Amino acid sequence: MSIDIGAIADFTNDEATKVSVEGRTLVVVRIQNDFYVLDDRCSHEDFPLSEGTVDVASCEIECARHGAMFSLVDGSPHSFPATKAVRTYKVETKNDRVEVTFS
Ligand code: FES
Fold first, then answer.
1. pTM passes above 0.90
2. In the prediction, which pLDDT does 53 show?
3. Buried b vs exposed e over 35-45: b needs ≥16 C-beta within 10 Å?
């Protein structure tokens, strides 16, 4: 099921944006024309990743609470204290809109 989460222009480059849709809270990251969507919940201690910092060069997001780094591509943890992945979602752009797929 694909869900429209907004216009491409709604998302600021290189920043994390919180989006609530279909009962889920997501963090959406735009890097130029690429979009990444993950659950907005650090796997370490249930902290919103949308409050974190995007590392554009490495395509990661850093949790603001204890500094764990996660891949924006697959949600895998790249540094402690997190050891579990964060769920990621398929995302596409169509006609200037951003759509996330929930399976
Ligand atoms: S809550 Fe995210 S690293 Fe601890």
1. yes
2. 98
3. bbbbbbbbbbe
